[in-house]
From TrEMBL:
It comes from Terribacillus aidingensis. Its EC number is 5.6.2.4. This is Replication restart protein PriA. Its cofactor is Zn(2+). Keywords: ATP-binding, DNA replication, DNA-binding, Helicase, Hydrolase, Isomerase, Metal-binding, Nucleotide-binding, Primosome, Zinc. GO terms for molecular function: 3'-5' DNA helicase activity; ATP binding; ATP hydrolysis activity; DNA binding; zinc ion binding. Component of the replication restart primosome. Initiates the restart of stalled replication forks, which reloads the replicative helicase on sites other than the origin of replication. Recognizes and binds to abandoned replication forks and remodels them to uncover a helicase loading site. Promotes assembly of the primosome at these replication forks.
Amino acid sequence: MNIAKVVVDVPASQTDRVYDYLIPAKLMDVLQPGMRVIVPFGNRRIMGFVLQISNRTEVDKLKEIQETMDLLPALTPELLDLGVWMGEQTLSFHITALQAMLPQAMKATYKKILVRTGDIPDELQSVFSKDNTALFEQFEQSGVSFAMLQQAIKAGQVELRYQVNSKETKKTVRMLDTKQTTEELQAELSNVNPRAMKQRALLEHFIEEPGPVAQKQLLSIYQTTASTLKPLLDAGILQAYDKEIMRDPYEDRKIEPTKPLELSDSQARALQPILKSILTEKHDVFLLHGVTGSGKTEVYLQAIQQVLDKGQEAIVLVPEIALTPQTVNRFKGRFGSDVAVLHSALSAGEKYDEWRKIQRKQVKVAVGARSAIFAPFENLGIIIIDEEHETSYKQEDHPKYHARDIAIFRGKYHHAPIVLGSATPSLESYARAEKGVYQMLELPERVNDASMPDYQIIDMRDELHAGNRSIFSRELLDQMKERICKKEQTVLFLNRRGYSTFVMCRDCGHTVECPHCDITLTYHRSSEQLKCHYCGYEEPVPHFCPSCESDTIRYFGTGTQKVEETLTQLLPEARVIRMDVDTTRRKGSHEKLLGAFGRGEADILLGTQMIAKGLDFERVTLVGVLAADSMLHLPDFRAAEKTFQLLTQVSGRAGRHALPGEVIIQTYSPEHYSVELAASGDYRPFFQTEMQTRRVFQYPPYYYLALLTISHQNQVKAMQTTQTIVQLLQKHLSDQVRILGPTPSPLARIKDRYRFQCMIKYKNEPNLRDVIRRILHYYEDARKKEDLQIHVDLQPYSLM
Ligand SMILES: Nc1ncnc2c1ncn2[C@@H]1O[C@H](COP(=O)(O)OP(=O)(O)OP(=O)(O)O)[C@@H](O)[C@H]1O
Ligand SMILES: [Zn+2]
Ligand SMILES: [Zn+2]
């Protein structure tokens, strides 16, 4: 068994295959599938993943693996299988799929460092310096065998760390220990001056309680300072060293432990079938459809408890913006230090630490955003996807996977159930549940008899006719005033997706566009600049219209800053907390703002998408939605679905506890069914209406979509290539398929590249991936030499 099958880190179609390498003697019996190695490739050294160890090869002269990057597999056998499947499903290179499963810190350039964490065999001692660390090169030069090091790593005596850069320095604590026996220490004690009480106390500590102790802790127990220690260290009786500790970003926070709540009848009914699948190890997919505030989280928690009791592990996915401290605390409160949290706000080093806790089986539950679906557990008992309708579960870069599909792959592998939870399921999932592909579980009412909030739709055109030009309707303003009097709270939601502040000339209607992209520039008040959100171009705000030279150039649209200003003019007594990208940029600020709101330090929480989810505050009795319809006009067949979901989710923040809630929706399209039906709070009528539209226009879930986007600096070239691709598709796909295009993309130019697209609608087309793969292959040269770009998205969520 001296041949390794390796996937190399050269993402290109010619190299998208497995290469054979010879395993050198030093790595024999050390290398395992899932480890990363450095191999010679052409005249370079590159990284690769070992897929398999074998004794067979078809190649005569093999090159040797040069080094190993891991001593424990970075990917489990399951994840290696998943890599193959994901590469095929998403049409991405095998190497890209494998890389996607690892934390960022393992992909970056790094230094490999060994850290001593326990007693190690004598042969290894020489490798480490006094501070218990060693560069990996030091080990390689020492002549000690890899097998011995691997043993020590497996036994937890040594850790292999990747030091990303100087900013990611390890966190250490100073430890004290002694090499002397109790008897020897007793002898030393008799030598110490009887009046040096504190010194004696420290020595006595090591006599009574042998073993290492943190210096800080020891000094505080005996109420003394480092100067007392110094003579003991100088005399070599005690030794000090730095021990690396895992960074736990949540460690400073006090989290109240919670106990399982007594379930309501419907919660108990929903939990039952999940528990059954866990016990019988059956891969079922459940759709938990529960209205906002119906207690879905408690159902998750109790299902996870069962999984842990069985000695298994759990993954919980939560959309990035809902991964608030409140959410995390609910899991940490129940399962304490068994929980790892994978959050994009963590530094690369912190994320890597959390990942390693999973790899080493120090935790049993992983809570995180999309990529947490790759948590390297080996005994999964359940996967939960909360807010399953969220489009952020689809990755927009390669590999363009959907976390739901990955969950189902892993659930099958582990014979574990999947729970998809939402108050507003995606049409796809709800349709599958109706057909019985998924099992439907329903929580139709809120817990504790709390009622759903009352809704009012305000037609903003009426306000305009009545002479109110403000962003606030009279009703909303009155209601906010009332809340301030009653010491209750308001959440104000500004829907900004597809709605931005731009500059327009009142005389001629001219808007300022990006010179490189076909999109209007966005006005940034803080810097008085106009910026392009696609390419980063910026320019100062003009004082005169570039087209007609009039000075009536004004900015339009409504940003949170503008709303806040208006609010302080109209309601000077209101204390407002604004949450948007600007006020939450600093680490921890998100948490601070929400904390302040929770403590009642403000009357109004004003924010964008980031306040739509996961908030559960007792005194919030009013939710106001500004610009409810701003997404409806986007060129996206999911616009109505997204509007309905967002309105329902935001509204769900009101009246979740004893106090009844009220929701005011301001809109220019009060008659649109997504607005009307969100106000009725009923999912089913919306589902039925929307399904009809999807059937008529042949969209998911009736049809699958594939979107090809072709771009080039030359408009004609981009158009002609798309035309040729459409012809190739027509020729090679069955006549069941509908091919639309070529058409210019809704965003017809980005960064000076012209963009065309073609859309494929199909029901069952087994050949599709193969045909597209061949087309990509055909254009490989042009893509490299002529800078042609072809993007394929087999389950598009963004059609721009
Ligand atoms: N069985 C129960 N008994 C008492 N309180 C409960 C019970 N189940 C849940 N709760 C409480 O009800 C509130 C709402 O529950 P939760 O946040 O889980 O709802 P949800 O369904 O996730 O809502 P959303 O979709 O809006 O996030 C929480 O404060 C929770 O602690
Ligand atoms: Zn631009
Ligand atoms: Zn003008």
